[in-house]
Design brief:
With 97 residues, the protein is mainly alpha-helical. Helix content is 70%, strand content 0%.
Length: 97
C-alpha cells in the first residue's frame, strides 16, 4: 500500500530541485563571505602582532623598554617662550601701565 500518490511525488520532484539550488547558492555565498571575513581578521591580527613586536624591538634597541610615566612635554615655540617670560616677570607697581 502506497502512502503517497504518483502526483505528489511528481510535484515534489518538480519543486525540490529549484528550492535546493537556491538554498545551495545562498549557502555558497554565505560561506565565501565567512571565509573572507575570517581571512581579514587573521590578517589584521597578524599585522597588530607584528606592530607590537616592532614597537617592543624599537624600545629594546633604543633603551626605552618602558613607557615614561609623564606625558612628553610639548616643543618650545617662541610664542610660548614669550608667554612664559611674561608670566615670570614681576608685576608692575599700581598706576604704572
Amino acid at each position: 500500500m502506497m502512502r503517497y500518490r504518483l502526483r505528489t511525488l511528481l510535484i515534489l520532484l518538480a519543486i525540490m530541485p529549484p528550492l535546493l539550488w537556491i538554498g545551495w547558492t545562498n549557502y555558497e555565498a554565505w560561506k565565501a563571505e565567512q571565509e573572507r571575513q575570517a581571512a581579514r581578521e587573521r590578517l589584521l591580527r597578524e599585522r597588530r602582532d607584528l606592530t607590537g613586536i616592532r614597537i617592543r624591538l624599537w624600545q629594546v634597541n633604543t633603551g626605552r623598554l618602558f613607557f615614561p610615566t609623564a606625558p612628553p612635554q610639548p616643543m618650545e615655540t617662541p610664542e610660548r617662550a614669550e608667554a612664559a617670560d611674561r608670566a615670570d616677570a614681576p608685576a608692575a607697581p599700581p598706576g604704572v601701565p
